[in-house]
């Protein structure tokens, strides 16, 4: 409280100041005695509306934004020296006057019997008010969409254009000045930062791809089949469903793999890449055109409606619900080299993501997923809304990470988009959490614009051409220090496929003393199953015969010696196929560092990011089940049991999107050596079958809670 001048102390309690210091970054601003305003010290580029905090109407983002900046020795004294509140904008005064008039008339009409109900409404918590406002906005948005084409515009046409335009401007000003909608408004400096980020990093991949010559891949039999099926739609529902049996007969896997290998922009023969709507061995969806109009597998969730776009230069605090995402157990998510941002002489360590939803996530069970043979639980914990971001900054970061780095092209958060569909907002926004622990046990979260500034600072060439000769002359200790800093970092080569990889080693060996070559990036990856022994037809045929013979020998009363020899021979043949260099799953990739750029992101960010598609699919699926409750007029109590009943036994929620895209991104950008659990976890929750399993279960003693 000692930092505030007398004029600014009025209306601020100790609780408010503690709230501001620990949550809303008052350390970035300083108060001035002349105006009772504050200006940015570190150039935050964000202005905070202080009406709800009791500070005043605005807290300026720069000295130019602060009104009434006059000299103390002039005859025009500041509002603080005069003892008055600072002057406000005319539109603000008009809206306040209309509010007073409306409340005055409402108070005159109010009966004494309604006084108690108004007091109860006033005492509601902020979160309840936000939920009520969200329901009203949702109903209003859906009504506008459904009845948009049936509106009668005669009353508007009768008005003069000069009368309509001022009313529209006043309505827009009123909409922008709603106290509960947004608590942060971006300044011109923040808008310039967003433009710079979009120019240097946001559009870098698209520019690099446009600069390369176009490549028309050769067509396969499946392409001809898909074209014929899209031209002639199926009349019956049976023909419109996914039929992998008929397509698999025509589908030439080998030709499809050869086509992907022949891409001229491919980074390396052993690195696999993502294409929209494609798996490693062909198209993701083999459905007809009619079947693609429905189904969750086509990103069409029943009951979902388009969401009104958020205001990009505000934080939309009145519309969004904030949830902190954590994963338990933390195995494979806590690394020895986390992503760290240094700011204001402190280190902010990456701990996960925050999620902002447009609807409250109530009555949704925890999300469980099996990855690396470990049963993970994804928690989404509702917390108070942070104020240190704008929605446009979140979207710029999401496009940079999920589209340009991880290349998750098939992850769709908006639903199906048609030509006549209005612009809509993603159902979820994500913010990376870089935190530092405070002495009193709290956490300080780094603001979003500082993260964007960090990414811009880190965007440098991995090995600059003008410094390569100097770097080759470094002493071994100095080079080893630089290589250790780069280990685990994600680097990107715009325009290539894949665009980004993880650095596991950085070697500077020169094989030809007459020619200076760039240092070598060493990456340890995993070959896709379609290209390793797991996808080899000969291996699959031999494996089936081996499993069949092993099962027969296990259930036969007497095992002959010749049968044992047959089993050993087949096992030895399988082992030989596994040990072939062309069939091994683990591969070592060596790349020239020429053309690679640092991103500032490490593998821990990618590990956490690859859990988000699973969580969003889980939430959207349960929101569909809530829509089912409304349709049938009955609410199921056990939501997990309902999810189990509505899920086919063959479906396993592993990635929440195109599985090959997720596997490729994890192999290219995830951690190098994940720790694996027991393979039995896959069979614990599956349907039990087989005579041996039946005998094993029936031989156990009965239990009250099996």
TrEMBL record:
Q: Which GO terms describe its cellular component?
A: microprocessor complex
UniProt entry tagged with the keyword RNA-binding: yes
Note the SUPFAM superfamilies from the entry: RNase III domain-like
Taxonomically, which superkingdom? Eukaryota
Swiss-Prot/TrEMBL keywords: RNA-binding
Task: Give start and end of each Ribonuclease 3 central domain.
Answer: 468-599
* A Pfam family per the record: Helical_CED_Drosha
Q: Name one GO biological process term.
A: pre-miRNA processing
* Compositionally biased intervals (Acidic residues): 224-240
**Amino acid composition bias (Basic and acidic residues), ranges on this chain:** 66-100, 109-125, 133-168
Which molecular function term from Gene Ontology is one that the record holds? ribonuclease III activity
Q: Which intervals of the chain are annotated as region Disordered?
A: 52-189, 201-247
Extract the PANTHER family matched here.
RIBONUCLEASE 3, RIBONUCLEASE III
Task: From the Swiss-Prot or TrEMBL record, give the protein name.
Answer: Ribonuclease 3
Q: Which organism is it from?
A: Camelus dromedarius (Dromedary)
């Amino acid at each position: 409280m000692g930092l505030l001048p007398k004029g600014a102390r009025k209306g601020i309690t100790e609780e408010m100041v503690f709230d501001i210091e620990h949550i809303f970054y008052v350390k970035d601003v300083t108060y001035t005695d002349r105006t009772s305003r504050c200006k940015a010290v570190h150039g935050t580029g964000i202005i905070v509306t202080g009406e709800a905090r009791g500070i005043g109407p605005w807290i300026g983002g720069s000295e130019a934004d602060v009104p009434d900046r006059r000299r103390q020795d002039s005859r025009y004294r500041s509002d603080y020296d005069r003892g008055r509140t600072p002057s406000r904008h005319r539109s603000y005064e008009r809206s306040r006057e209309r509010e007073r008039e409306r409340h005055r008339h409402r108070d005159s009409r109010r009966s004494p019997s309604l006084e108690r109900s108004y007091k109860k409404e006033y005492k509601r918590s902020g979160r309840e008010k936000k939920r009520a406002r969200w329901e009203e906005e949702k109903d209003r948005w859906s009504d506008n969409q459904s009845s948009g084409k049936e509106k009668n515009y005669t009353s508007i046409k009768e008005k003069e254009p000069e009368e309509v335009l001022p009313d529209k401007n006043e309505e827009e000003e009123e909409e922008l000045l709603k106290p509960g909608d947004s608590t942060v408004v971006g300044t011109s400096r923040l808008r310039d930062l967003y433009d710079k980020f979009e120019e240097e990093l946001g559009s870098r991949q698209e520019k690099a791809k446009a600069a390369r010559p176009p490549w028309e891949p050769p067509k396969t039999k499946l392409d001809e089949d898909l074209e014929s099926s899209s031209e002639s739609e199926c009349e019956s529902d049976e023909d419109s469903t996914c039929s992998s049996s008929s397509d698999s007969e025509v589908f030439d896997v080998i030709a499809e793999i050869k086509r992907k290998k022949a891409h001229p922009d491919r980074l390396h023969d052993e690195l696999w890449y993502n294409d929209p709507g494609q798996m490693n061995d062909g198209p993701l969806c083999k459905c007809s055109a009619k079947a693609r109009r429905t189904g969750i597998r086509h990103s069409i969730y029943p009951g979902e409606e388009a969401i009104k776009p958020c205001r990009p230069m505000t934080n939309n605090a009145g519309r969004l619900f904030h949830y902190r995402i954590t994963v338990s157990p933390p195995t494979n998510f806590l690394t020895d080299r986390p992503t760290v941002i240094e700011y204001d002489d402190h280190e902010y360590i990456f701990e996960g993501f925050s999620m902002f939803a447009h609807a409250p996530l109530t009555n949704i069970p925890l999300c469980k997923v099996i990855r690396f043979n470990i049963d993970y639980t994804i928690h989404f914990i509702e917390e108070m809304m942070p104020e240190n971001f704008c929605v446009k900054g979140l979207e710029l970061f999401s496009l940079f990470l999920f589209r340009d780095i991880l290349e998750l092209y098939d992850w769709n958060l908006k639903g199906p988009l048609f030509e006549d569909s209005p612009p809509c907002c993603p159902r979820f926004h994500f913010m990376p959490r870089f935190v530092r622990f405070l002495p009193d046990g709290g956490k300080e979260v780094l603001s979003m614009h500082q993260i964007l500034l960090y990414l811009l600072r880190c965007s440098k060439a991995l090995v600059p051409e003008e410094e390569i000769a100097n770097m080759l002359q470094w002493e071994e200790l100095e080079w080893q220090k630089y290589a250790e800093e780069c280990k685990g970092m994600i680097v990107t080569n715009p325009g290539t496929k894949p665009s980004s990889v993880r650095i596991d080693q950085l070697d500077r060996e020169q094989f030809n003393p007459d020619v200076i070559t760039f240092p070598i990036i060493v990456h340890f990856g995993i070959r896709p199953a379609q290209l390793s022994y797991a996808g080899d037809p000969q291996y699959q045929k031999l494996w089936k015969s081996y499993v069949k013979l092993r099962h027969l020998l296990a259930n036969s009363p007497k095992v002959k010696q010749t049968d044992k020899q047959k089993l050993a021979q087949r096992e030895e043949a399988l082992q030989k196929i596994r040990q072939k260099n062309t069939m091994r799953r683990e591969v070592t990739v060596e790349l020239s560092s020429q053309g690679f750029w640092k991103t500032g992101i490490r593998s821990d960010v990618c590990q956490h990011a690859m859990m988000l598609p699973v969580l969003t699919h889980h939430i959207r699926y349960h929101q569909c089940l809530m829509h089912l409750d409304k349709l049938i007029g009955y609410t199921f109590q056990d939501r997990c049991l309902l999810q189990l009943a509505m899920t086919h036994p063959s479906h396993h929620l592993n990635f929440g999107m195109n599985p090959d895209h997720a596997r490729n991104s994890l192999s290219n950008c995830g951690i190098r050596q994940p720790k694996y659990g027991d393979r039995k976890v896959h069979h614990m929750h599956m349907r039990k079958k087989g005579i041996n399993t039946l005998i094993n279960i029936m031989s156990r003693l009965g239990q009250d809670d099996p």
